[in-house]
DNA sequence: TGTTGCATGTAAAGAGTTACATGATTAC
DNA sequence: GTAATCATGTAACTCTTTACATGCAACA
């Protein structure tokens, strides 16, 4: 209920936040940001705090969540916790089952640089790829750690599968960088043998 | 020259468009969109026409490109073609060499769905992954085809390397989907043997 | 005393998309 | 005739981030 028309027009990020609540827990905006950083982040980027708060407002307006203030015994500022409603559960289930799946979007900063290899020194290309290997390995390790802390919770079975996917994804990213380092070496050797082609760089 | 302060603040998309021009060709906005679809798209999404036109305006204002109108002999509407200036070449080289590399950003629609597996039927998960496999394979084939049409052009050596990277990347995406299909089967079997855990779904 | 973590939110700006408008040419 | 391709651009809108504001508690 509440605003029926907004149902179809919610952006994917709203559904992601509602999805986080669909596991049944009562969470604050702050909690949601943390959960998001440990799950969504590996395959769907993590929204900023401010966006999470505005998504929560939108979801509540749509009747998909309800909230209440909780006084903190320890003395810190009171917090507002959110819970998914029946209408929200119905809506997110319907979205998950019926909405068209958005194609994956990749904005790969390191590749954008290497694509402009004619403007770089070979050493700079190696550095970009080396840093990317480290980044990918770090992400892989975080995915492993987060998957471990969720294991054996039946409710988290599918999130755990996506973390497993992420672990393999970042392992592949790391290996793809290594393969490209080899390709760059091969290209540099070929150019050294036949240096007539130096039209650019 | 022109607005020195805008140099550092240009968004990555501006640099991507300027990068497209850094290979030396004189191109129209329409051409740039096509080039973008055959290269950037595989690792950095392709901006819309309207954004390309506004980026070109911004780049010209910054003094990084110059343009001229060209009358079409065949009778179609006149077009405006853009060329990179010396200042633009200097700026894009400096950006490529010195600006911090943005970390890769992934928004993986199919994984967002599967992460909400508790809201889906197993059949729907298989369908999402099956479609994703097809998507990945199509992207891989496009990357192969585009790499082939650029081969042996020494100026396109690095773009060709990134297309090679893309070919492997999409092959990996395809294989990762297959691995996840197996994981889902294994999970379904485990649940069938021990159906006590049906707390959700 | 200063930093980190918890906790929530507003305001402003920028990035990027979709829809729309226009109009000629070519191929079916 | 009508669909597709070439070709450029504006307007409105949405998404998303950054910077800022506020304030307590624990810890070093």
Automatic annotation (TrEMBL), chains A, B:
Domain spans labelled Transcription regulator PadR N-terminal: 17-93
Protein name: PadR family transcriptional regulator
């Amino acid at each position: 209920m509440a605003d029926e028309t907004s149902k179809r027009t919610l952006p994917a990020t709203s559904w992601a936040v509602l999805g986080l609540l669909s596991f049944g827990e009562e969470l604050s905006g702050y909690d949601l940001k943390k959960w998001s950083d440990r799950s969504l982040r590996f395959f769907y980027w993590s929204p900023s705090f401010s966006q999470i708060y505005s998504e929560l407002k939108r979801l509540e307006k749509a009747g998909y969540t309800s909230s209440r203030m909780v006084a903190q015994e320890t003395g810190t500022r009171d917090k507002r916790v959110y819970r998914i409603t029946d209408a929200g559960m119905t809506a997110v289930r319907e979205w998950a089952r019926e909405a068209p799946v958005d194609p994956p979007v990749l904005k790969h900063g390191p590749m954008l640089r290497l694509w402009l290899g004619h403007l770089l020194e070979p050493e700079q290309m190696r550095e970009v790829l080396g840093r990317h290997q480290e980044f990918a390995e770090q992400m892989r390790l975080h995915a492993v750690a987060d998957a471990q802390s969720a294991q054996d919770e039946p409710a988290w079975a599918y999130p755990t599968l996506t973390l497993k996917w992420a672990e393999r994804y970042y392992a592949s990213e790391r290996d793809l960088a290594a393969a490209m380092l080899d390709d760059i070496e091969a290209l540099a050797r070929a150019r050294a043998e036949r240096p007539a082609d130096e039209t650019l760089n």
